[in-house]
Description:
This protein is an alpha+beta fold. The chain folds into four domains: about 10-20 and about 85-175, Reverse transcriptase/Diguanylate cyclase domain (Alpha-Beta Plaits, 2-Layer Sandwich); about 20-85, MutS, DNA mismatch repair protein, domain I (3-Layer(aba) Sandwich); about 175-235, 5' to 3' exonuclease, C-terminal subdomain (DNA polymerase, domain 1); about 250-365, DNA polymerase, Y-family, little finger domain (Dna Ligase, domain 1, 2-Layer Sandwich), CATH 3.30.1490.100. It has helices at about 20-30, 55, 65-75, 85-100, 125-140, 155-160, 175-185, 195-200, 210, 215-225, 225-235, 265-285, 315-330, and strands at about 10-15, 35-40, 50, 80, 105-110, 110-115, 145-150, 170, 250-260, 290-300, 305-315, 340-350, 360-365. The protein has a five-stranded mixed sheet. It has a five-stranded mixed sheet with strand order 11-10-12-9-13, with helices on one face. A three-stranded mixed sheet has the order 3-2-4. Helix 6 (about 155-160) links the parallel strand 7 and strand 8. Helix 4 runs antiparallel to helix 5 (about 125-140). The relative contact order is 0.13.
Amino acid sequence: MSEQGASVLRKIIHIDMDAFYASVEQRDFPEYRGKPVVVGGKPDSRGVVATASYEARQYGIRSAMSCSKAYQLCPSAIFVYPRFDAYSEASKSIREIFHRYTDIIEPLSLDEAYLDVTEDKLGIGSAIDIAQSIKDAIKNELHLTASAGVSVNKFVAKIASDMNKPDGLTFIGPSRIKAFMEKLPVEKFFGVGKVTAARMKAMQINTGADLKKLTEAQLLAQFGKSGKFYYKVVRGIDERPVQAHRETKSVGAEDTLSEDTNDDAVLHALLQQISVTVANRLDKHKLKGKTVTLKIKFEDFRQITRSRSFVNPMNESSIIYNEAIKLLTEADLGVLKVRLLGITLSRFYDDVPIEKADNNQLEFEF
């Protein structure tokens, strides 16, 4: 088996839309084009930034930042509330473009997906050409831009898609993976956040080459079960298939805060936004659930979940939000700071046929 972990090399494309929500707003409202746009709410609200246009990002505005902080950074920015129907419609059109080339598609959210084009429907052969063709179709037909990463597995393709944003296309072939992973700064590894990156750097682990010097046992001792993940991916090993058909067992949304915090106002505002997202997805797919689960990831990457079940199924954002607040309060965080919150609804109502929903895990990230 090769260092990439596969005897037969696959052709994997990761497509990531560029500043998706903000780009849809700029497309639909010409007066927003070329200007800093912040999607999430008004600057005097308790809202959280869902997406910022690239013009807004130049001021330091990032996703999960409070709208009030974003306003401080750029008072001239245009602040708008999310229009999830518009984003869902655009996502549907993007998915239709994907299906011209392959049916092996694993959506990660409205604006992100993996495609396995090892055997493409049009017989193009070159994954790079397919990725470029997809990007061109999205631009010409939908007036939006996407960035693409192409490689032999999902992990490397995902990293590649982020390398030349916006409107980028990056190919990392088998012969380049070893050198690429060794030179990659640890903070660029998918799954390594600020806290873990700081721990690694304190151990003189600054790049993939440094990380590769540790044995699997040493990584497990230092980073728990994530150590096994780090051991494999630094060697370019990722055998996960692109999963085109998965039974829908839960509908969830989660978001990582721009800064670790235990500020109730910020956490509550983020939970409210996530609750609306989950409710919209449930409504779209005609699903109701009986169990609400709150996911909390702390600054040190420890993670807990808290759940509560209802007798009757529901999908209302207000109920989801109120329950999430109760679960957060009962978790009694104290001085612990939070880096990520997520809400999932499961145990769907039996009268709603699962097959009416997409055959995918319905996950959504801002």
